[in-house]
Write a structure and sequence with these properties.
This protein is an alpha/beta fold. It is built from seven helices and ten strands. An eight-stranded mixed β-sheet has the order 3-4-2-5-6-7-8-10, with helices on both faces. A two-stranded antiparallel ribbon has the order 1-9.
Length: about 200
Amino acid sequence: MALLRPPQRAGRAERPVLIRFPLVLFLVVTAGLTTRHVQAQSKVDEYQVKAAYILNFARFVEWPADVLPASSPLTIAIVGDDPFDGSLDELLRSKTANGHPLRLKHFHWNDVITECEIVFISASEELHLAQILRFLAAQSVLTISDIDRFSLRGGIIEFRMVGNRVRFDVNRDPAIAARINISSKLLSVARAVHEGSAR
């Protein structure tokens, strides 16, 4: 797929590539973010972009009807410290995903984490990652984190910084085990799609 590049002007160096795929552009624009936010190096802007991705993951993933009945709330949870600093709460306010109202919960790693469709595991909980994933394995939960090698340690979607851009990897095996269907459109813009775990 061809890269989308801004037009070049005579006498100026080529500007950096900002958007690699149309769906990435869609994800950013629908969250109301500007190009400046994508370029920014600060953690605040990084997590605004990640919040936009999480909102749109909810729109490109399907759960079984017995897990998420039509029009029922879709719950997103943060486990551990909140790196979004309230930006995810603000973004989700009054939003829906495929007819499902969105709500946000916060948990500690050793809480009973139930009745959630999406769980973001904060980097603050890396020491407890194996326990959290074992507990969630019995549920139809889309797990997301920016913990290193998360998608190879049993998680489904791993955020990665590539240069100054937020990208993501997907591991299809735990998604299939969780009975979650990830849209082919979403898979097509992943940085990498894995099958299985690291040995």
